[in-house]
Specification:
four-stranded antiparallel β-sheet, alpha/beta, binds pyridoxal-5'-phosphate, 15 helices, seven-stranded mixed β-sheet, 44% helix, 2 domains, Aspartate Aminotransferase, domain 2, 13 strands
Length: 381
Amino acid sequence: MSDFSQLVPEHIRNLGGYTPGKSSRQAHRESRVNCIKMASNENPFGPSPKAVQAMQAVLGECNLYPDNDCGDLRQKLVERHQVRPEQIVPTAGSTALLGIIARTLLSPGLNAITSERSFIVYPIATQAAGGRLIQVPLRQDSYDLDALAAAVDGNTRIIYLSNPNNPTGTIVTATEVDRFLDNLPAHVVVVLDEAYYDFAQYLAARRSVDYSHALDYVKQGRQVVVLRTFSKAHGLAGVRVGYGIGPPELMSYFARMRTTFSVSGVAQAAAVAALGDEAHTQKALANNADQVPLLMEGMAELGHHVVPTWANFVYCELGEDAATVAKRLQAEGVIVRPLGPWGAPTAIRVTVGTPEQNKIFLKAFRKVMERAVASKQTVET
Ligand SMILES: Cc1ncc(COP(=O)(O)O)c(C=O)c1O
């Protein structure tokens, strides 16, 4: 029998896998209760009915390959963002584009930089491309831009900046990013990952904060690639569609690196229709902005450190083993994300749900955490 490890390069052999948030079905199999999923930052209101209708309308064409150039979708995005078509590359979720960017720009000997406790796909994409990922510490739960800049060397090709950051929910402001970009050398491409852009922009408008100049950088021809996705505010995580916007030449390399026909016709139709259903997106954004304070206060009331969020999830430090707490919450019918894989074994991330879901979560959370305190007191006495 072959020893396959001899055939596979070392950086692939050592690759860690991605652990997704648990599905409601899996949780039901394990705990025998119906569970609300508040673990993967999805839209609790589902997809836009217009997107569902658009998908149904193209199902009969599934015998045909999709439009590899995603022409209609790119045209809609051109109108929305006021950029040129060659500046936009749609992919099967922005995760796919992260892999493409890493494989295009990295190889053994080169490195990428990001923060500790950031999006879990950055290490995977970097290592799969044979590059090395440098992770600098967070400063007050947020990206430390000075530390990122200080880590750049002659072999750096990518900086991943998740803004807002997943899982802490923090942002770096537009002014901070302006200054950061002004001082970067020309051999570094900054990936401004704005998966939660709509939520952050909505909250920023309410809070009178200047959140993002990402598209201005692209229009100015900076070495920046902006990532957006239909998985979050648009409620289309299951059909896999996202896109990048950046300098035409760089985007043309990414376009060539894509897996052919990877964005299905169903996904393209859904994304086009979702862009035309502003009311559905606004409902999710308004609900999120209204519910964030209630969820944060409900968790903080029990004495836990909750990081003020700019996204559709809340990061909470429990001071307890988060995996155990998550299991107990699951038994109460709520799936949250324990953050051990992010190097935060005592923290959870909770997706903001509908008002009813958040009430159910807070009730379960109170019950589980009060039980934890009571059992600690019993041990101490
Ligand atoms: C920061 C960040 N970037 C990108 C993504 C990827 O989204 P998708 O591949 O679904 O477009 C996510 C999803 O959770 C994320 O949190």
